[in-house]
Amino acid sequence: METSEFAIGQRWVSHSDTALGLGIVTDISGRRVTLGFPAADEERTYAIDNAPLSRIVFQLGEEIETFDGSKYTVRAVEEIGGILMYHADDGEQTVQVSEVKLAGSVNFSAPHQRLFAGQFDRNGAFRLRVSTLEHQDRLRASAAQGLIGARTQHLPHQLYIAHEVARRHAPRVLLADEVGLGKTIEAGLILHYQLHTGRARRALIVVPDSLVHQWLVEMLRRFNLRFSIVDQSRYDDIKAQQDDVDALVNHIFGDDDDGENPFESDQLVLCSLDFLVKSKKARDHALAAGWDLMVVDEAHHLAWAPEQASPEYEVVEELSAASKGLLLLTATPEQVGIASHFARLRLLDPARFHDLETFRAEEQQYEAINSVVRRLQATPDRISEDDKAALQNWLGDELAELLKQESAHQAIVDALLDRHGTGRVLFRNTRAAIKGFPERQPLPEPLPCPELYEQARFGDAGLAPEQTAGEEQWLAEDPRVAWLEKKLASLRPAKVVVICARADTAMALESYLQLRAGIRSAAFHEHLSLVERDRAAAYFADTEQGAQALICSEIGSEGRNFQFAHHLVLFDLPANADLLEQRIGRLDRIGQTQAIQIHIPYLQGTSQEVQYRWFHEGLNAFAESCAVGVAVHEHVSSDWQKALEGDQAALEPLLAASAEETKRLKTLLHNGRDALIELNSCRRDEAEALITEIEKEEGSAQVRDYMVQAFDILGVDIEDHSEHADVLKPGEQYQSGHVAELPEDGLTVTWEREQALQREDMAFMSWEHPMVTGVMDSVTSSGLGKAALANLSVKALPPGTLLLEAVFAVHCPAPESLQLTRYLPVSPLRLVVDVNGRDLSKALPHDRLNELCSNIRRRTAQAIVPKIRAEVETMVDHAERLSDPHLIPLKEQALAQVEAGFEPEIRRLEALQKVNPAIRDEEVDFLRDQLAAAREAVGHASLALEGIRVIVTS
Ligand SMILES: Nc1ncnc2c1ncn2[C@@H]1O[C@H](COP(=O)(O)OP(=O)(O)OP(=O)(O)O)[C@@H](O)[C@H]1O
């Protein structure tokens, strides 16, 4: 009996998460279905179209258990109004059990019961099941888990961060690598890991308008993560789909709040921050949907001051409370000031960052902390008395506790970085630490100031004086225009990115260059729709027919990837040094192969010249990435303002003071904050070990061998394409239910990452490709290979001897929030027994049996099974008895890991509570309760029989 229509009361299981147990349909509304999972005390809502659910129908002869613990054997099944009624007996009386009454933690479809019910498979399916469990177990224990499938180069700083952050439960961190070092990739790796390991299911990415499409594409092509965009047009579509009567009612009553919540229809959603700020409805919907992980790119837009938060900050603050994990991304965390930086850290970790003034005061101590940390690391076996006193001062009573720990020095360093640095929350890699970036060459072009700008030489207006003149006029008289035209002609065919502060300037320049100067160019600014912007960027990227120049407004200076170009023209200069870094970062990013030529046309005797000299001589911000620009500006702001206003006398002192302050701050940061953050952001040796592990996993041919084995059983044909590549096609016996993502006309795949990086048209098949994980999940959650019957012909055993090869795996239903799979591996246990209970596991290894066993014809097998039922039951009992002792060490190990996972967290919160009165006792109690619940759940773990092969000798 098979049905796929949902009805309230039906029982289904989640094949993506069997630990939930047997679910019951509690609500069906619109395109969503909600199930309660009593064993795990969880409720889940799925989109009906792609719910990972399988209907559970117990077969005749199988045992069922009701929620009050009574057990019955199924004798007949009938369907009444979509609900199954089991006619069952307990040996004495016959009862009718509605499926509604079945227990939630029932372990359905026991392999031997499947066998007796005639549901057995050939040998190959059993073999596939065993190897699936073994691979799952190995992969889950591997440090490479979650990081294998990405179509990216293995860069140590990225993998280190991803590994460090992604393993956390509900991570909340600021990814603040310098511009262009790959924060998007880091966020993608973390997302991929969290989704792959089930630590997160629902994720929301919030980015500026101009980056929506780029994120969509990066997530899909690099990580196989398919996000859905929610924007105004999505709402328009929903509205259009509403039936006419609804629309009429809404129109009359002015109520358009009903209708679908598009944030709930998908698990992975991408949305622009601008849209969330503008649309209250979208905001409310996003809030109501709830998230496991939220990513916010270009987080420097989230400005905050003690008196007033920006609307962007408010939106993210609200949403961050509705999301368990939070990743904020920005290359320039202090772009809008230290207060905003603090406020963002507070969103991430309110327990640690509770007071702005305390935060400021702490920053003064970084240098002293750094020197103690360095000494601790240099001499791991002793601490000087002076350092002990300093540590006592910083860590108080906690020090004594930390000193008792096994690796006391590391624990103290970690506690210091966390409690007195930005340790757990902030990651920042710098070009200086990573090395290998190309040179940046500033090429100033002083030009005479035309009369046209006589009234707009200085102040802010002087930075973009064209806004004070008519368009025709400035295009004709501003010498930067003629210079640009000539420069582009002389550089042809080299690609050039031109950035100016304002959209009007970009538009006027672009149409001038295109129409009057005959230069192939494209404009990129905020007045274009998202599609038009992507089209412009693609036209510019095209190497054969594309534009030579892309004329961008300031939005082109964020997040975009233009590293294929080597020339940047700064048509004007921004006021803020971080913005300058963002602009240069479009070209100065991973993948840039040549020196970057930065052309800087400026008008002499205007604020442009002042700004050029300030950036160049004061901050050295053209030639090198400058992280201290905003802080230096705060220090010299009144002189800077004066110089910008045209006060000649202020300029030289400004340049001298800025250069000195830049040097001072860089040294300070180098020895203080940056050093502390660097300690945290990439531990080289760990990163290298991780890469070795990932490459070992990728380098082995195991994934292909496994999939070849699976394809053989699931009816997928493999044709040779070229070295490392194949073409997969549905064959005659194709079982589409087990193989997701295989198009009818086939799929070209590569098994090698290097090839995948070159050939984006090929799917990159790794252990973490959705087709591979889909097959693995489908094998373990379905009945495939659970029971098999085989023939063995060996002289050593008399004909007619029966053997049982059984495979067990750890089973532990528990609330998902506990994430117990972290501690309890699958741990497949294979045993071979005979009818007398002899343990033959070692004498008859799995591979040897695979070689020796052959299939029995189905008819013959069906005739044999009823005759050997009693013996099989006896052998299953023997195997279960032999399996029992294996569970004890597994549980002990899991318990130790549970403690090791929770206790540092509890200690940390207790330590922070002493300095932060805002931490409530309930927060600490919550963790203690979680620990108790995890202990209890581990206590109930069992070894469940996952598959059997009954072997008959001949
Ligand atoms: N591991 C990698 N493998 C291949 N390409 C990479 C890798 N890391 C980064 N890149 C490429 O380098 C460029 C910069 O990466 P990304 O956009 O993630 O940087 P970012 O730090 O977010 O930049 P920004 O500060 O400008 O937002 C992108 O083109 C990206 O595709």
From TrEMBL:
Sequence positions that bind ATP: 177-184
Database matches in Pfam families: Helicase_C, RapA_C, SNF2-rel_dom, Tudor_1_RapA, Tudor_RapA
CDD domains: DEXDc_RapA (cd18011), SF2_C_SNF (cd18793)
Gene Ontology molecular function terms on file: ATP binding; DNA binding; helicase activity; hydrolase activity, acting on acid anhydrides
Keyword terms, alphabetized: Activator, ATP-binding, DNA-binding, Helicase, Hydrolase, Nucleotide-binding, Transcription, Transcription regulation
GO BP of this protein: regulation of DNA-templated transcription
Domain Helicase C-terminal: residue ranges: 483-634
Function as written in the Swiss-Prot or TrEMBL entry: Transcription regulator that activates transcription by stimulating RNA polymerase (RNAP) recycling in case of stress conditions such as supercoiled DNA or high salt concentrations. Probably acts by releasing the RNAP, when it is trapped or immobilized on tightly supercoiled DNA. Does not activate transcription on linear DNA. Probably not involved in DNA repair.
Subunit structure: Interacts with the RNAP. Has a higher affinity for the core RNAP than for the holoenzyme. Its ATPase activity is stimulated by binding to RNAP.
Similarity comment: Belongs to the SNF2/RAD54 helicase family. RapA subfamily.
Protein name from the UniProt record: RNA polymerase-associated protein RapA
Organism name: Marinobacter litoralis
